[in-house]
TrEMBL record:
InterPro entries: NqrM (IPR007495). This is (Na+)-NQR maturation NqrM. Pfam families: NqrM. It comes from the Bacteria.
Amino acid sequence: MKVFLLTFLIFGLAIIGLAIGWLLNNRSLKGSCGGLSGIPGIEKSDCSCSNPCEKRQRQLAQQQASRKQA
């Protein structure tokens, strides 16, 4: 039981430390436009962003260029 409590305490302190670091960093969480389409082998190119980021725009341009060549 002591091992369980010690492990729980260590993980709890780690999570609290990470949370404090994130709060002090003053950055907001950012999502990715494209999500699963960035993973090789998954052919889903739907983008829910109204204004895709530069990286996603480059990916879309490369996909269109490869379709034109085929």
